[in-house]
Design a protein that fits this description.
With 123 residues, the chain is α+β, with helices and mostly antiparallel strands. The chain has helices spanning 29-32, 41-57, 66-72; strands spanning 22-28, 62-64, 83-92, 102-108, 120-122.
Length: 123
Amino acid sequence: AFPTWSRNSGKKGCSAISEVVAREDTLNIHESIHGMGFKKGAPWTLRETQIFAMKETGTPDMHTDTRLSKAAWAKGIRHVLHCIHGQLSREHSDAEKSPNKLYRSVTCVPVTTSQNPQTVSEN
């Protein structure tokens, strides 16, 4: 998970959620859409990706890359991929009207093999 504020440290400091962080992660789509109707597979893939990214990064704003949408819809609305490898990153927001300082960006990472996927933190 992304670094969060530690309660064990003796001094008070600012939250680590303000940091800009990126990491690659494997999104298990098959678990999240199990039991869903056939025609709701690909749309729910994108929703579950947003929910997963919000839990992991802790920021409500989200920018989805088109490569992620293309990967979700690659096999059609019914036959959704089991896993998608994505890069979750927190970035500074340039919009002045936005109440949030950071937004999360989710992009699809092409992978040669899906055997033994690992989560990789990038700083």
